[in-house]
Amino acid sequence: MITKHQLKQLPERLHHSARIIRNQEGNRKLVEEILGIPLVATWIEQVPDYQDPSRKVTLCHTFYELGDGSALAFFEFENQEYWERVAPGLKERTGQYDHAALKVSDATFNELLERLKAASHPHRVLDHGYCRSLYVPSSEGYTLEFACDAANVKEINVWQRSTAHTTLERWASGDHTPNNNLRDVKYEQ
Q1: pLDDT level of residue 181 (50, 70, 90 thresholds)
Q2: Where does 13-170 sit in CATH, by number?
């Protein structure tokens, strides 16, 4: 049954489900070596702190591929103090990193953005380079993300599959130099 509020085109599928962790390499051993779910992308990035966009947060963001093209995603932060501020279960939980992301088309992304603006609902738009993300915080402490993949996502995925393990090794050894040269640092709030 279609309601008057329904999107013209519903989200296609889960894009990824993300969680905060303390140790990317230990997590990789569980997810990839024990559970058999392949690591397919490792991004080391500097992103705006959504509470203070003038501050940058350095993080490692890994993706493990599921059969339908969606992924399990995990964040580890360079700064322990930041982890303590945003980790699930703490009083100041932000929901920014503990979220579910839904894959949407360009048209649906734009429709959602217009709906949020019309409703004056808080939101953030962040262009990661490999996808554009629309983050929608809930008053219940979680965030929904709507992710629209870049036009050349297939080429990006091939590159990431070939570098994911060496990038994660570099992160684990203490080299936190960002590897995302695709990012167009646009942050809209």
Answers
A1: confident
A2: 3.10.180.10
